[in-house]
Amino acid sequence: MLGGRGGARAAPRPAGAVVLTVDELTVAYPGTHGHVAVRSASFELRDGHALGLVGESGSGKSTIAKAIVGLAPITSGEVRLDGETVARHGVRPRGLRDRVQYVYQDASASLNPRMRIGETLAETAAIAAGGTLRAQRGRVAELLSVVGLSAAHAERFPHELSGGQRQRVAIARALATRARTLLLDEVTSALDVSVQATVLNLLNRLRRDLRLSLLVISHDLAVVRLLCDDVVVLRPGEICETGPAERVLRSPQHEYTRSLLAAVPTLTRARAAAQADEGDT
């Protein structure tokens, strides 16, 4: 169990407790036209749940995730984590490393090409635990095992891994901090469909076993349907529909949501692929 060595996890939250609150969040970028990327967005993510942020390119879904961790400016509104205000206008988030982790679409860009995978994981774990690299090396094999990789992968460099394996390493690095909330930004969009399925299966298993909370940013409604309990639909800059994922995707109430669904040829292939075994290619 990941919480068993090198420092304990935080005390369990009550089942269904609100983990992350985005309250009337507005993000506007300075300039002649004062572009508003997100306007008055509000939603909650609950403990052990997965919430999907969906919308076309430019809808503001990634901007919201970046504002949560301080990578985009907050014009008004605030972000609360476990009831504590962690981000608002003029206040950059602090102390979130061991509570929230951002996993990017391009795992290659987030991994140091000059460091072996084991070194990357040990360094991240050491920073989070306040210890030494040597003290954390024993944890590397454990982290790799949790994401379905062998201890031998610790000796490899990022370019020696497949795309799916690199994304598993990125997830392992997020887990190395013992964060219980992950922001997943299009993490399967660059992968083949069969590999997407194994990564989605992995995320579902980790959410169940480690009781993680996931904020899933995706333009792929099939991915959201397979992974998420609830969904927030963003039409450029604003939320237009929210609710349980199954209900929203089966019987959308807003015309924009219906147009997104109409643009998806079929969900059959994604459903079938998600039932593939956990082996990576």
Rg, nearest Å:
19 Å
* Low-pLDDT segments, ≥5 res: 4-8, 266-270
Q: Which topology does CATH recognise?
A: Rossmann fold
Give the biggest sheet: 6 strands, mixed
CATH architectural label: 3-Layer(aba) Sandwich
Care to give the gist of this entry?
By secondary structure, the chain is an alpha/beta fold. Helices cover 35% and strands 23% of the residues. The protein has one domain (15-55, 73-274): P-loop containing nucleotide triphosphate hydrolases (Rossmann fold), CATH 3.40.50.
Describe the model:
GO terms for molecular function: ATP binding; ATP hydrolysis activity. Residues 20-261 form the ABC transporter domain. Belongs to the ABC transporter superfamily. One of its GO terms (biological process) is transmembrane transport. Pfam families: ABC_tran (PF00005). The longest helix has 18 residues, at 193-210. The chain is globular and about 50 Å long. The strands form two sheets. A six-stranded mixed sheet has the order 6-7-8-3-9-10, sandwiched between helices. The protein has a four-stranded antiparallel sheet with strand order 2-1-4-5, covered by helices on one side. Helix 6 links the parallel strand 7 (181-185) and strand 8 (213-218). The chain starts with 17 loop residues before the first strand and ends in a 7-residue tail after the last helix. The chain has helices spanning 61-68, 107-110, 117-129, 133-146, 163-176, 193-210, 221-227, 245-250, 255-262, 268-274; strands spanning 18-28, 36-46, 50-54, 76-81, 84-88, 100-103, 181-185, 213-218, 230-235, 238-244. The model is unreliable at 4-8 and 266-270 (pLDDT under 50). The chain has 281 residues and is α/β, with parallel strands linked by helices. The chain is built from ten helices and ten strands. It has a single domain, classed as P-loop containing nucleotide triphosphate hydrolases (Rossmann fold, 3-Layer(aba) Sandwich).
